[in-house]
Amino acid sequence: MNKWLLILSVALVFFSCKQSSPEKHSISYEWTFSDESPSFSHCDSLQTYKEQYQCFQKELSRLLSNQINQHRLQPNNPLNDTLVLTLLIDQKGKISIKNRSTNTNIDAEFPFIDSLLQLSVSKLPNVLPATKTNVGLPVKSTIDLPLIFKTAPQ
């Protein structure tokens, strides 16, 4: 009888314990102006957040334009259109395309534009990632970058 009581007690203790699985915690942060946006190292020396961010945008636009212009695109029809790229900058500063706007004129003139943009963005250098300053962590961020396709009439 004692033997069965001991087995029953052990079984009750074993089965009454909750199996705890690791919970997934997500931390959400609210962006403030004291946080640091992504940047190039030479833009960090500027005084204000606005100047630093404008420097980053201009440099990113310049680098991406240089990559695209190396392909010497020649449309059949004149263009004066804009395509907006949403770029993702990960915690390590790697840039990738998250999304792009649709533009039927650009898509018609350059059916391979997605491949060209992917290739061009993949050749961009890593940047300094955005930083959540109150916790000192690099974070993912996005930037919308308009690309203007403008050609003279032939």
Strand-helix topology:
Blueprint: H1 2-16, H2 49-69, E1 80-89, E2 95-100, H3 104-109, H4 113-122, E3 130-132, E4 137-139, E5 141-150
Antiparallel strand pairs: 1-2, 1-5, 3-4
Q: Could you name the key traits of this structure?
A:
two-stranded antiparallel sheet; 5 strands; disordered N terminus; alpha+beta
Helix content: 25-40%
Number of strands: 5
Radius of gyration (CA) equals: 26 Å
Residue-averaged pLDDT:
80
Which strand order spans the largest sheet, edge to edge or round the barrel?
2-1-5
Spans of at least 5 consecutive residues whose pLDDT stays below 50 are 1-29
Give the CA-based shape: elongated
Count of separate DSSP helical elements: 4
Could you walk me through the main structural features you see in this protein, from its secondary elements to its overall organization?
With 154 residues, the protein is α+β, with helices and mostly antiparallel strands. Helix content is 34%, strand content 21%. The protein contains four helices and five strands, in the order H-H-E-E-H-H-E-E-E. The protein has helices at residues 2-16, 49-69, 104-109, 113-122; strands at residues 80-89, 95-100, 130-132, 137-139, 141-150. A three-stranded antiparallel beta sheet has the order 2-1-5, with helices on one face. A two-stranded antiparallel ribbon has the order 3-4. The chain starts with a helix and ends with a strand. Residues 1-29 have low confidence and may be disordered.
